Every structure is written in structure tokens, then in C-alpha cells.
Amino acid sequence: MNANISPSKQKLRRVFGIVRKETRQAWRDPSSILVAVVLPLILLFLFGYGVTFDPRFFTVGLVVEQPTPESGSFTAALSHSPYFRIETARDRRTFEAALVAGDIHGIVVLPADFAEQAYRGESAPIQVIVDGSDPNTADLVGNYLGLLWANWLEQESIGRAQPLLPTAVELQPQVWFNPEASSRHYLVPGSIAIILTMIGALLTALVIAREWERGTMEALLATPIEIPELLVGKLVPYFLLGMGSMALSVATAVLLFGVPFRGSFALLTLVSAVFLLAALGQGLLISTVTRNQLVAAQVSILSAFLPAFYFSNFVFEIDSMPWALQLISYAVPARYFVSTLQTLFLAGDIWSVILPDLLGLAAIATGFFTLTAITTRRRLE
Question: Nearest-CA neighbor of 339 among 186, 195, 174?
Fold first, then answer.
């Protein structure tokens, strides 16, 4: 009967046989469900709630050398700010030890001639001292104090015949794509890419490495099945699991974290599918080379998660890195996926951004599967 079946149909039957086998094995294996369902939710909650670049409460020491109505007004404005908790004193030396110890984030000094300088406009009437050992916090404190100072000047000048010190530049900011200026809207889409990178690599690396350990892979390769058929059959069940994880992550981002989605779901599905092919291909390559679950897990973290975290623009700016590291980033799939996800979520279907990312992911996926096929054949020989 088999002699009457065409070679193409025989190949399809072999592929479908492997797909059925892998699907049953994945369904019976708790670790696959754990990696595909539980792990992305845990990581997404950690990134969504634990990582933020939004301003927080800052403790500052306010030095008022000579109380005046103007200094009292500024003190009230600073006290009512949602970003600052203030402690007051008459001498800056009161707060110097606390600033050095990190107990406060900055010192604001209102000199004795604060009111006179504000009316004359000859020099800056306040002094802001921050701890530069943490540049991010220092910038946030300085920027928000600058905004508060500008708002206070504007309010105090209303109804006065003699205006207070004018600001040198009048800023009228206009924020595109993320008008709430919420870091969560920026971080959550990027975290999905990081999570899918690790999940995609682990799904295939651990499960298939287990087969190498148990010897079932050699028995399977002893059959007439060809290498491309084997790779496709192994890939399909975990590809579907990965797409399910992607759908779960996107639903959590939109429904729970309130991240807007302005792009096309069809385009998101396409880019996610190509990215998963790259991630799963990397896992296949790792399992083929290592053939050991413990080693495969370690290599997956070192070669998938860490590069995705550092070279994806998720936290660290690639443009600020040395040129050699920027070149390395082009080989990291998460670089392209983070860019596409942030674009689809916050801006929409911007093809000038998405198309180069899609081509980069396709090239990397092709490279991983080619290396896997070559490595598997050499292992058999």
C-alpha cells in the first residue's frame, strides 16, 4: 500500500506523525505548560509592576534662610507637590550629612534675599543640590524642581504689577504616542519580547534535550524521516504553544495593564510568528549541540535571555553603546521584536519601522534553522 503513495504524501504523513507525537508529549509534560503559560504571566507581572521609570516620592531638604511671603508661597507649592516630601531648616549644613548618607535626595536653598533676587531677575534665586552618585535620580529631582519652579513663577506673577523672574525659555511640550508619559506603556511591550525570547528558547531546548538524554532522539533519527521533516514536526506543537503565550501576554498587557494597542492584530500575529520561529530555532540549535537539559537551560539563559535584555533597547540604549556592541545587537532577535512591539502598541502600523524589523527576524530565523539542520546531520555522521 505504501508503494502507491507518492513521496510528497509520505513526507506529510511522517511530519504529521511527529507533530502528533510531540503534541501528546507536550500536553502530558507539565514543564511545557509551566514554561508556556505560568512563566510568562509571572515575568509579565514582575516587569509590569516591579520595573518603572515613572517619578516616585523624593525627600528633599528645604533651607529657608529668611522667611518671607514669597518663600512661604514657594514652600507651600513644594509641600503640595505629589512628588516631594520636604524637611525644613534654616541652615544647609543641617542636611549635608543626610544627603551624603542617602537619606534625602536633594537640598533646595532659598537665600535670605530670595524675594529681592526674584524681582530683580539678576541671578537664579534658588540653589538645588543633588547627589550625583545616582544620575537618574539626580536628573529626576532636578527636572521636577525646575518644572515646579517655573509653575510657581507663573502663578506668582499673576496680578502683580512687577512680574517675578521670567523663565529663560518657555516650554510647551507635546508628547506623541504616549501622552500619559507612562513608562509602563513603554516597558510592558518590550517585556513581552524578552519573555517570548526566553520561552521560545526554553520550550524546544529543554524538551528536545531530554529526548537526547533518554536516547529516543537517536531512535527517531534511525527511521526514514529526513532532517527537515524532523525539524518541522518538532517545531509545530511548540510554535502553537508559543503563539498561545504571545496571545496571553498581549491580552494581559491590554486588559490588565491598560497599555493601548494602536496597530493591526494581523500584523502583530505575523511578526510574532516570525520571531517565534527565530526563538524556537535557537532552542533547537541549543538542544542539538548540548544534548543535556541542565546545559541547555544555562546556554538558553546566556545566549537568549541576557542578550535580549541588554541588546534590545528594552532598558539600555543601543545608540549609546560602543560600535562593536552595536554590531552584536543586529544578531539579537529581540532587538527587532522590541522595536516592532513598541511601534504596534503605541504608534500603529508604521511600515518604515516594522518592515526592516520583519526582514531582520526572517534572516535570523533562517540562519538558526540552517545551522540546526547542518549540526544535526553532523551529529548523525
Answer: 186
Is residue 285 within 8 Å of residue 375, measured between CB atoms?
yes
Strand pairing class (106-110; 127-130): antiparallel
Work out whether the CA dihedral 320, 325, 331, 334 comes out positive or negative.
Answer: negative
Instruction: At 124, give phi and psi (nearest 5°).
Output: -70, 125
Q: What are phi and psi of 161, to 5 degrees?
A: -70, -35
Contacts of 321 (CB under 8 A, 6+ apart): 329
Residues 334 and 189: their CA atoms lie apart, in Å, by: 11
Task: Please answer whether residues 74 and 117 qualify as being in contact, where contact means their C-beta atoms are separated by less than 8 angstroms.
Answer: no
Q: Which three cell numbers stand for residue 381?
A: 555522521
Cβ-based neighbour number of residue 381 at 10 Å: 5
Q: What is the pLDDT of residues 113-151, one digit of tens each?
A: 877 776 666 555 788 888 776 677 788 888 888 888 878
163: CB partners within 8 A, 6+ apart = 157
Query: Hey, what amino acid is at 252?
Result: T
Model's pTM, two decimal places?
Answer: 0.77
| DSSP β-bridge partners for residue 62 | 88, 108
Residue 180 and residue 55: Cα distance in Å, rounded? 13
Radius of gyration of the chain (CA): 29
pLDDT tens column, 210-244: 777 877 777 777 777 787 887 888 888 889 999 99
Query: Cell numbers 516594522 correspond to what residue?
Result: 354
Instruction: Return d(Cα 230, Cα 208) in angstroms, integer.
Output: 12
Please classify residue 273 by burial: count the beta carbons closer than 10 Å to its beta carbon, then call 0-12 exposed, 13-18 middle and 19+ buried: middle
The C-alpha cell at 362 is 526572517
User: What is the enclosing helix (H) or strand (E) of 33?
Assistant: helix 30-33
Residue 375 in 3-state DSSP?
helix
